[in-house]
Structures are given as structure tokens and as C-alpha cells.
Design brief:
Number of strands: 8
Number of helices: 14
Radius of gyration: 20 Å
Order of helices and strands: HHEEEHEHEHEHHHHHHEHEHH
Strand order of the largest sheet: 1-2-4-3-5-6-7-8
Shape: globular
Helix content: 40-55%
Structural class: alpha/beta
Strand content: 15-25%
Distance between the termini: 67 Å
Length: 311
């Protein structure tokens, strides 16, 4: 009888591991649990005939808009939001072509086009003044948005942001020079390698969320590789003077947070921000990777909340 029970358990586990729809349902359960725990709800807004999904936490105070990084989605911010003060209204968006957004809404997916797509969403939401935060590619998109809409921005938060060439290239740039792109995800093994670039101390991810995430990422890989080419050919990543001009134009209060073990964008990038941004605060996490709001959500939220409380 005991042997039969064990065999049934093995069969059930094998079924669950092989059944994509079941894994999707379990993954959605965990994600929705985290979203609800953070006080967020899924909302939609119509933008040029498209329904755009976003996460929102109601609050009577100022608005905070959050932008994630390349090939990720708005759920990157869920645990971070949980530790922010209740008074803020918080909006976490999917960048165009990411998350629940269709991949045909924009003609191009270079950083400027992504910024224009975000501007369309913000306008449709009727947000006039807000705090803007971006991680990685979301940070670059945030800076480009600020260039065209400085009057809307109360403060700018940049977490391991793209758009600055690190004085010390680091592991990611070295991999690209050798013809290896860690963002080119064709297999589960590729996904595991990318995680070593993104995290120093990876957060716990319940089964089967990781399986679901990598399967979705593999399906979208061709599209993301086209986007990666458009992103990396933009002047914000190729022209040092463009980068300097962009930083010097940031007149609002700016908070730069970085993980000292970031293998994608080396922490030496902070030196460049310190040189060219006038109204700047910086904080470097020890033993943290590329996405501090995921790896160290409570501490990241505390530092960010202290920063914006002054404005």
C-alpha cells in the first residue's frame, strides 16, 4: 500500500510537470497572491485601440510610475511595492512589447519609441505630475521620457539603469564582445545563465513559476532579439556625448541605486552619474545584482521612500 501511494505521488508530480496548462494555473495563483498581498490590482486602459494592462495601488498622495527592464514585465515591482508607504498611488506598467502588451502596437521598439509608448499610456491615465522609477532598460526609457516631459516629473529613480557606458565594462559587455548574448534565450540552460547575470543572491521562486517564465521567454525570443538590436543601436547606448547630454538635462532630484555585484551593468556606472547629474543621491547595495527591487525589495523600498519623502 505504501509503495502504491509513493507511485501515485510520482505519477501526479510527473503529470503536473508535463502539463503546461496546470503549471500556468499554479504560476498565476502565486503571482496573483503576491499582487494582492502588495495591495495591487490589475487594471486596463485603452490606448490607441489597444487594451493596456497595468498594476495599480490606490493612494491619496503623489503618483509613482514604475518601469521594468528588458524582456521582463510589471510583476518585477510587486514585492518592492509591498514595502512602500500606503499614501502613494502606484502604477506599474509593462513596457511596449513586454508582459501583456501586444508586440505589434509600435512600428519600432528602440528606446525612443518605447518612451513614446509609455507617454501614450501616461496620457491615457490622465497623470499630470509623478515620481518616475526605472530599472535597467526601464531606466533608459525613463530618462528619454524626462527629456521630452520634464514638467511632469517630481523625481527620478534609476535602479541599475541602462543609458550610461560603464567605465569598467564588466561581464555582460565582455560576453557580447565574444559573440555571446546572455539575453538570447533559446533553452532552459540559457535562462539559468541569464539569472547568474541578473542576481547575486537569487530570490525564492515557487515551483512551477520558473518553468512558466522561461517557456514564455523562449517563445518571445525572436521578437526580443529584434528589440535588443534596436535598443543597442540607439545613440543612448552608442554615443557618449548623447549620454552626457541626457544626464546633464536631468534637473529634477535623482536617486541612483545600484547593486555592487551587477554583472549586466557594472557598478562603475555610478561614477558617471555622479559626474554629470547635479541634484543626485546614490546608494550602492553590497552583495546585490542587477534588480535590487527583486533581490532586496524591503531595503530598496526603504531607501526610495526616504528619498521621495523630501519632495
Amino acid at each position: 500500500m505504501r509503495l502504491l501511494f509513493i507511485l501515485l505521488q510520482i505519477l501526479a508530480l510527473t503529470f503536473l510537470q508535463s502539463c503546461t496548462s496546470v503549471q500556468d494555473d499554479i504560476s498565476s495563483f502565486f503571482i496573483n497572491f503576491e499582487i494582492k498581498r502588495a495591495g495591487l490590482v490589475v487594471q486596463t486602459v485603452k490606448v490607441k485601440d489597444y487594451d493596456i494592462a497595468y498594476l495599480e495601488k490606490k493612494g491619496a498622495g503623489p503618483v509613482i510610475v514604475l518601469l521594468h527592464g528588458f524582456s521582463s514585465d510589471k510583476n518585477d515591482w510587486v514585492r518592492f511595492v509591498r514595502y512602500l508607504p500606503e499614501k502613494y498611488r502606484i502604477i506599474a506598467l509593462d513596457l511596449p512589447g513586454h508582459g501583456e502588451n501586444v508586440q505589434t502596437r509600435l512600428e519600432r521598439y528602440d528606446p525612443s519609441s518605447l518612451s513614446h509608448g509609455i507617454a501614450d499610456i501616461i496620457n491615457s491615465l490622465g497623470i499630470d505630475r509623478f515620481h518616475l522609477v526605472g530599472n535597467s532598460l526601464g531606466g533608459l526609457v525613463s530618462k528619454l521620457y524626462v527629456l521630452e516631459h520634464p514638467e511632469k516629473i517630481i523625481s527620478l529613480g534609476l535602479f541599475d539603469s541602462a543609458g550610461v557606458t560603464p567605465p569598467v565594462p564588466g561581464d555582460f559587455y565582455e560576453a557580447l564582445e565574444k559573440g555571446n548574448n546572455p539575453f538570447d534565450i533559446k533553452t532552459k540552460a540559457d535562462w539559468e545563465v541569464l539569472k547568474t547575470y541578473a542576481f547575486f543572491d537569487p530570490p525564492f521562486i515557487p515551483w512551477p513559476m520558473d518553468n512558466v517564465m522561461v517557456n514564455k521567454r523562449i517563445l518571445k525570443n525572436t521578437f526580443y532579439q529584434k528589440m535588443f538590436k534596436a535598443v543597442t543601436e540607439h545613440p543612448a547606448l552608442t554615443d557618449p556625448q548623447f549620454q552626457v547630454n541626457m544626464l546633464q538635462s536631468l534637473s529634477m532630484p535623482v536617486l541612483v541605486i545600484w547593486g555592487d555585484k551587477d554583472r549586466i551593468l557594472n557598478v562603475s556606472s555610478v561614477e558617471v552619474y555622479s559626474k554629470y547629474v547635479k541634484n543626485l543621491q546614490t546608494f550602492i547595495f553590497k552583495d546585490c545584482g542587477h534588480v535590487p527591487m527583486i533581490e532586496r525589495p524591503k531595503e530598496t523600498a526603504r531607501h526610495y521612500a526616504q528619498f521621495i519623502s523630501k519632495y
